[in-house]
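Hi U.,

Before I forget, here's the chain from the pilot set. I'm dumping it here mostly so it's searchable later in email.
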Amino acid sequence: MTAPETRALRVLTVTNMYPTPARPLLGTFVGDKTGLSAIIAADRALRDFLQREPDHMRAMYLVWYDSLGHDSEIRSRLAGHHDRYRKDVARWVREGIRDGEIAAGVNPSQFSIQYCAFFFGIIYQWLVNPEAFRLETVFRHLEATLKQLLDAKEID
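Structure:
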């Protein structure tokens, strides 16, 4: 294992869902929210983390992308994190359906895959060229799109 992989592995070992500096931020944003409120709060947490900790996020993703080329403990742990992301999002959708704020016809598992794909894609684009778009605008449009996709009632 290379030195960067070893350092990243230490971070992944300590981190449950997000890179270490993001965990308190996520907790502050999501807290005990459920359903659509939790989904929107997680969006805002990621937006703010990208704005506050760009160097940390860039370093972690570079190590994670590098780990994709071979079997490694980092890749295995990253797969576990991705499972956790999808499970959390699916749970939030189920809670929103239960509470009547998300349409009953939404498939929580399929939505969680689409939701995570957006985030990984936007982070990738941001890593490649952070000047190509404004994060604030992207995330504002995302919130509106999520509400449409989920056929959700207004929550704010």
